[in-house]
Amino acid sequence: MNFATFDLNLMRVLDALLREQSTVKAAQKLNLSQSAVSSALSRLRHMLNDQLFIRRGNRLVPTDYAQKIALPLREEMDRLEALFAQPKSFDPAAEHMDFRIAASDFFAELLMPILANGMAVAAPNIQPKLIDLVPHRYIQTVEQGSSDLALIPEEPVGNWAEKEVLFHSAFAVIARRNHPALQKANTKAGELMPLELFCALRHALFSPEGNSSAMGDAALAKLGRTRKVGMTLQVFSGVCRVVSESDMIALIPWQLGQKWADQMQLDIFVPPMHVPIVKIVGVWHKRSTNNPAHRWVREQIFAEMKKLDAIQPDLSAWPQAGQ
């Protein structure tokens, strides 16, 4: 391909097609006719010597080559947009945008209601969207541009990303109030749940993929013990609902237990083994760091999430590492 004769307007068309995977939707996005987009696609296929898309029903499925260039092309388009954008003051009340947050339903309970109230006044046309596209692959959704921010337990990120620590979360055991086995053992809410009882009772486990083990099992393994997993659920709300209506117990984040204890008639107990504190971080793409709208929404979310560090138990009497 001779880049000197390449029509750079075709980059916008290709980027829109890769995002929308439809000539109709790409045309709407670009404010062009569908025939103009189809014509541009024909030119792209000729100039790049690749089919770029294969039609499958109503969708255009990218070829391997198109998939390979999708993210670099999107990043270059973002850079060009930022390069030529006119400086302007940012007014959240006047901004129209979607802001996609990749996170578990923990944040549906502890973040989204706060945003519903706060942003309705300050930024009524900014629409936060909590998405759960691929559990435990939230970082990839940020890298690929299908989400704007990931809220996750801390893990390594690539040099394309930025991250900020938001809060820490201990894990607690929940059981329905007046649980017969706990009453028989004379174990009261707030006390340490006996190890034998913790291992004997059946557990409801949060696992979007349906795995039958999690960090609680790793902690038990250090003591040479195992627990009985009765079922797995893909959302924390389901775990708590099952526990509230059965004799199962569960290990969940402390802040979530505090949120639902009264509403679902749950008691909270200290786990009988040391479960590491989880550090929750926000991860976003560096290309969005200085975007005024992204920065404003990010700051609203981070300010609220950092308040969760104040909702922590007194860990001095909890099992420590090595116990």
TrEMBL record:
The keyword Transcription applies. Keywords: DNA-binding, Nodulation, Transcription, Transcription regulation. Belongs to the LysR transcriptional regulatory family. Coiled coil: none annotated. Residues 6-63 form the HTH lysR-type domain. It comes from Maritalea mobilis. PANTHER family: HTH-TYPE TRANSCRIPTIONAL REGULATOR LEUO-RELATED, TRANSCRIPTIONAL REGULATORY PROTEIN. It comes from the Bacteria. PROSITE patterns: HTH_LYSR. It holds the Pfam family LysR_substrate. CDD domains: PBP2_Nitroaromatics_like. This is DNA-binding transcriptional LysR family regulator. One of its GO terms (molecular function) is DNA binding. InterPro entries: LysR-type_TF, LysR_HTH_N, LysR_subst-bd, WH-like_DNA-bd_sf, WH_DNA-bd_sf, YidZ_PBP2.
